[in-house]
Task: inverse folding
């Protein structure tokens, strides 16, 4: 029944057993939650490595990665050096091949231009003989015109193969084109002038085959002083 002093309030009569049962349920629930939290903490503690062990494992992994990186860089440098050496070797081979092609082309050109040089040298004495025959033949000699015609035909045939003759008479002596056979003392020409020609010079496609055989003027020796009486 309600207390007259608490008139206007609400009051319920709850059995004592029910209150105790509720308290026991709350205690069990709190105990279960505590045990579950303790188990989870223990599991985390078992699964998680100790701080020292984790640092050691991490350091070992870092050292392994550093070793692998260094090995990879070393292999990369070696490969790059090998590629560079191979590239330089290929460049040298290509340059040697190009030089060989140039030499071969030059040799072929020389053979085409100067291959008949030996034949020309064998024919030059014949041309010299015709020149000397004309030089010593009389103007009224009937054979003179025949020899002159033969020499002209021979020189035309040689010219078709790139052979040209040249005379050095009256020119300044040039050791690159002339060969001095003798010195001629004279005051008629300046010293060093070609005054005699034993044989003409010849070129084959601008290459000197034989120099002109010449005599070169020199200053005559001074006259000895007159003997005193």
Result:
């Amino acid at each position: 029944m309600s207390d007259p002093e608490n008139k206007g309030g609400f009051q319920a009569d709850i059995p004592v057993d029910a209150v105790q049962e509720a308290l026991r349920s709350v205690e069990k629930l709190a105990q279960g939650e505590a045990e579950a939290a303790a188990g989870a903490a223990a599991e985390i503690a078992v699964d998680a490595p100790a701080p020292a062990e984790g640092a050691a494992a991490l350091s070992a992994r870092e050292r392994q990665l550093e070793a692998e990186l260094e090995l990879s860089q070393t292999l990369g440098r070696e490969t790059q050096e090998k590629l560079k050496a191979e590239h330089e070797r290929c460049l040298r081979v290509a340059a040697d091949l190009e030089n060989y092609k140039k030499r071969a082309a030059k040799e072929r050109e020389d053979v085409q231009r100067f291959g008949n040089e030996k034949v020309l040298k064998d024919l030059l004495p014949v041309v010299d003989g015709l020149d000397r025959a004309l030089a010593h033949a009389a103007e009224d000699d009937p054979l003179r015109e025949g020899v002159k015609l033969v020499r002209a035909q021979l020189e035309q045939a040689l010219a078709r193969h790139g052979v040209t003759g040249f005379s050095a008479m009256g020119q300044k002596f040039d050791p690159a084109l002339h060969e001095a056979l003798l010195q001629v003392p004279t005051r008629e020409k300046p010293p060093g002038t070609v005054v005699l020609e034993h044989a003409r010079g010849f070129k084959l496609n601008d290459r000197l085959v034989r120099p002109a055989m010449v005599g070169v003027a020199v200053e005559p020796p001074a006259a000895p002083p007159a003997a005193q009486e």
